[in-house]
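wait is this the right file?? whatever heres the structure
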């Protein structure tokens, strides 16, 4: 089935050079055939590496078309018009720190689609992987290094966890969102798209119809991971987190990632190494990508730029203080810590 499907992955990047090859190799392993990258103001060699990959393989690289700050939504609006998206059987919209961990069949998107009954959309809940006390950036696969996450069914006291979505070509699309598609408002009730979670169950009705503004990007994760989950490595190493904080993100310039963001995603309560099943094949694919043209050299240049940026940031008292704060931060999410204090199970800070 995998050979029959054209699956296009769409993503936005800014200074993600050291992580591109792993993300591409991993997604090729699970059946992605084409990639559409939008880059925004990169100064670490990300755009140069993507240009080289575009010359050699199934990668399309475009500058982000956004004129304001809504980078991701403007890119997705543009992507809808591109042939690489329009002619795909399925479209997967995700970030380069997100990896679908598929538990069925040959662990491919095709196996997931078959297990879910070939619906028009499959939404996978996030599983946030903690930093794991890894301070230094090393050029090794992210999926190998970080092995602990929060309880997959609960996050910061919330049972509803955000998702990313795989969308079939016949979905009655109004527009792509970063987390889920939205169908046309005039779609009749009996013609609403078939849509499942990662266990092949119909998604909750209020999520399907986007009835609750607070929940349009999430639904309860309990029982929703039977066939797949979405490993989200939002923190990576402390070095990489500092660089991420410096660059902002693809949606908002100069957004600070304070210790609340860090602590909400640094809960190491749960060990999960199941994604390591992909490692041998992914490492082979990374090596194959590096062997093409000057891709290997451009990757090394991105790694060097990442480390140099880390070094430059640590010359700043602000970033040295941030690093020290994150090293000493509690591994309890703020909401859980507050609840334990209210119950008298933790002392209040003096």
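ok assuming it is, sequence goes like this
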């Amino acid at each position: 089935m995998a050979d029959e499907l054209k699956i296009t992955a769409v993503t936005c990047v800014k200074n993600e050079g050291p992580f591109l090859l792993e993300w591409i190799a991993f997604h090729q392993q699970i059946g992605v055939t084409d990639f559409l990258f939008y880059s925004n103001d990169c100064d670490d060699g990300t755009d140069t590496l993507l240009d080289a990959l575009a010359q050699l393989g199934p990668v399309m690289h475009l500058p982000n078309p956004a004129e304001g700050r809504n980078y991701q939504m403007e890119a997705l609006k543009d992507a809808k018009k591109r042939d690489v998206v329009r002619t795909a059987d399925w479209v997967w919209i995700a970030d380069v720190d997100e990896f679908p961990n598929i538990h069925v069949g040959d662990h491919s998107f095709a196996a997931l689609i078959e297990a879910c009954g070939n619906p028009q959309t499959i939404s996978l809940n996030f599983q946030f992987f903690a930093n794991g006390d890894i301070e230094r950036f090393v050029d090794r696969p992210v999926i190998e290094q970080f092995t602990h996450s929060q309880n997959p069914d609960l996050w910061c006291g919330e049972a509803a966890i955000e998702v990313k979505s795989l969308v079939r070509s016949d979905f009655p699309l109004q527009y792509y969102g970063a987390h889920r598609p939205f169908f046309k408002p005039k779609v009749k009730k009996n013609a609403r798209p078939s849509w499942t979670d990662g266990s092949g169950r119909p998604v909750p009705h209020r999520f399907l119809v986007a009835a609750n503004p607070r929940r349009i990007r999430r639904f309860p994760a309990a029982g929703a991971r039977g066939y797949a989950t979405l490993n989200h490595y939002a923190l990576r190493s402390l070095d990489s987190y500092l660089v991420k904080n410096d660059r902002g993100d693809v949606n908002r310039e100069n957004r600070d990632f304070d210790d609340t963001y860090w602590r909400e995603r640094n809960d190491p309560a749960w060990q999960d190494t199941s994604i390591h099943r992909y490692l041998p094949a992914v490492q082979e694919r990374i090596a194959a990508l590096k062997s093409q043209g000057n891709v290997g050299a451009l990757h090394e240049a991105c790694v060097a730029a990442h480390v140099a940026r880390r070094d430059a940031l640590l010359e700043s008292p602000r970033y040295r203080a941030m690093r020290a704060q994150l090293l000493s931060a509690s591994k309890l999410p703020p909401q859980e810590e507050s609840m334990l204090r209210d119950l008298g199970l933790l002392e209040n800070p003096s």
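The first helix runs from residue 20 to 29. so i think its the right one actually
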